[in-house]
Amino acid sequence: MQQTVFLEPDKFYHVYTRGNNKESIFKDEANYFHFLQLFRKYISPYANTYAYCLLPNHIHFLIQVKPEAQIDLQKEDTTQIIRNKLQRQFSHLFNAYTKAINKRYNRTGSLFQERFRRKEITSELYFTRLIYYIHFNPQHHGLIDNFSDWPYSSYHSILSKSKTLLHRDDVLKWFSSRDWYRKFHEENAADFSSIAPLIEEDDL
Cα angle at 35 between 30 and 40, to 5 degrees? Predict the structure, then answer.
């Protein structure tokens, strides 16, 4: 049984989940955008987002739980409350999206697997490689020949100068520049060896 990893303030996490029995979560283009709108509503007040990728039957996010001082909570709230609150926010996100899909496509029952998975990012190497891994996922799963052509990831949003809720400047600073960010993605050619032990359960 997988040990529960709590979402602690200030820490970085790889959050991912999939549809029940690998069922498709996104059935048309509008679904992807609706999910991101709900993510902005339920998760953004509590976590900073650095990268994401939405695929037909699973999702990946790289987030940092905000420091307690940046979260609008009551004085009596503690780290334990934040843990539980963010856990509930993810549940609200998945439930709200499931209700919308069930209504639109006349289906019933749960859409996502019972528990979303999360792994703490514990090193600079993991952080850097994980951003690449998340963006490369559509090509990794054979959905597209070139990951950069996938429209439902943060890859191009980070390169863009358009308004975004992503912590784009922090990502680019991590890679030194836009050019190095792009070069890192283009030259690593699916080399996940350095983080293989940390993503081996992610093959959704």
Answer: 125
Q: In the numeric block, which tokens belong to residue 142?
A: 């054979």
pLDDT in tens, 122-138: 888 889 889 999 999 99
Beta carbons of 23 and 80 less than 8 angstroms apart: no
Beta bridge partners of 60: 16, 53
Classify strands 12-18 and 117-120 as parallel, antiparallel or unpaired. Answer: antiparallel
| pTM over the 0.85 mark | yes
DSSP assignment of 120-188 equals E--SHHHHHHHHHHHHHHHHHTTS-SSGGG-SSBSHHHHH--S--SS-HHHHHHHTSSHHHHHHHHHHH
From residue 4, alpha-carbon distances to 1, 7, 67, 83 in Å are 9, 10, 21, 11
Q: Are 67 and 20 in contact (CB under 8 A)?
A: no
**Going from the N-terminus, what domains does the chain have, and what CATH number goes with each?**
12-199 (3.30.70.1290)
DSSP letter, residue 27:
-
